[in-house]
From TrEMBL:
It comes from the Bacteria. Keywords: ATP-binding, Nucleotide-binding, Transport. The keyword Metal-binding does not apply. It holds the Pfam family ABC_tran. Residues 2-238 form the ABC transporter domain. SMART domains: AAA. GO terms for molecular function: ATP binding; ATP hydrolysis activity. This is Phospholipid/cholesterol/gamma-HCH transport system ATP-binding protein. The keyword ATP-binding applies.
């Protein structure tokens, strides 16, 4: 579990995050949503330690990351998996070599042990026998799955996903959402997903934090969000006709069930 307490961050005179508190729950998909400029990226970078907040606490399983010594932070970072928006695969490396990279950096496993781990995570993301392919030879969805495989090869306790469905078609996006959700449950990972994809919000949003102009405007689940009376949240979530229809359907089902 990750707890964020009273986080403030500003650059110059501009306040980006203003007194944000939230909980990212273990074994669940925690989503950070909001319009561009709402503070999602800055908050995420504060949580992983890329930015130092001006005020507040960031607790990983009860331990404040901001007061950790350098060696403690290094150990913590080894427990964090990252799925980048652009995949961040090395074009000159094969799929296998890309996934081996963190194992080579952070473990002292034998080569055969590393290969075994690579094969295990590739099979888990349904890319068995893709070892020798290069990123240029595989589809966007396959690249995303390679990125997921690499992010879980060190068995992280925490997984951060930055716009995991960016650039993907709706069907492939659903596959990636389902995979992230399954891995979160299977490995009991604290997963944090930064997304604009409202289908992801409705499908895998176990816990959602909605930011608006640097403030935490709303916090709850994808079940709660349907019945939210927060006007700003509703304007953001139900902008599309599909999601408005989904809201109307769920409200009708709720009334019929009473």
């Amino acid at each position: 579990m990750i707890e964020i307490k009273n986080i403030k961050k500003q650059f110059g005179d501009k306040v980006i995050l203003d007194d944000i508190s939230a909980v990212m729950e273990a074994g669940k998909c925690n989503l950070i949503i909001g319009t561009s400029g709402s503070g999602k990226t800055v908050l995420t970078k504060c949580i992983v330690g890329l930015f130092e907040p001006d005020q507040g606490e960031i607790l990983y399983d009860g331990v404040n990351m901001l007061t950790m010594q350098d060696d403690e932070r290094k150990q913590l970072r080894q427990q964090i998996g990252m799925l980048f928006q652009g995949n961040a695969l090395f074009d000159s490396m094969t799929v296998e070599q890309n996934i081996l990279f963190p194992l080579d950096m952070f473990t002292k496993l034998s080569h055969s042990e590393k290969k075994k781990k690579v094969n295990e995570v590739l099979e888990r993301v349904n890319l068995k026998d893709a070892n020798k392919k290069y990123p240029a030879e595989i589809s966007g969805g396959m690249k995303k799955r390679v990125g997921i495989a690499r992010s879980i090869v060190l068995n992280p306790k925490y997984l951060f996903c930055d716009e995991p469905n960016s650039g993907l078609d709706p069907q492939t996006s659903m596959v990636i959402d389902k995979l992230i959700q399954e891995i979160t449950l299977e490995y009991n990972i604290t997963t944090i997903v930064v997304t604009h994809d409202m289908n992801s919000v409705m499908e895998i949003g176990d816990h959602i934090v909605y930011l608006y102009q640097g403030h935490k405007q709303w916090e709850g689940s994808n079940k709660d969000i349907i019945f939210s009376k927060d006007e700003l949240l509703n304007n953001f979530i139900f902008a599309s006709e599909f999601l408005q229809d989904a809201k109307n359907m769920r409200m009708l089902e709720s009334r019929e069930g009473k």
